[in-house]
From TrEMBL:
Transmembrane segments: none annotated. InterPro entries: AraC_E-bd, GyrI-like, Reg_factor_effector_dom_sf, SmbC-like. This is GyrI-like domain-containing protein. Pfam families: GyrI-like. It comes from Tropicimonas aquimaris. SMART domains: AraC_E_bind (SM00871). Residues 2-154 form the AraC effector-binding domain. The lineage of its organism: Bacteria, Pseudomonadati, Pseudomonadota, Alphaproteobacteria, Rhodobacterales.
Amino acid sequence: MNEVDITTHPDRRLAAVAHSGPYDQIGPAYDTLSTLAEARNLVPEVKSMIGIFYDDPDSTPAAELRSHAAFEVGPETPIDAPLEQIELHGGKVAVYRLKGPYSGLKAVYHYLYGTWLPDSGEEPQDAPSYEIYRNMPGNTAPEDLITDICIPLA
């Protein structure tokens, strides 16, 4: 596994679409988010694409998993329904950079929560994990995708 970096992230203001169900089926929520962003001319305001994941898929039934597909936007960007505004609080974060297909995400989470976190001396914050997508699957080969998996720390 790659190194885990501990860094400080800023607060982020997100325009988001909720998703319920298996995390690997969040794609349609991103499609809705993209369609709304284009229709509302928000694309120039988008700073990054982020996924927020609230539940442990190993202990929560797949149908009950909760997540948000989101774009980071500036403080002046209007966020109107059906988009939701989410404030992603910054602070100390453990970051693992995955290079490769999204199918590798589950193994990274198992490593982070099962091995790295217990051995690190760090405590997780009572906040959801999130992913920052550094490039897009529509124009990037799966083996070249870059995803930062982020765990907020106390």
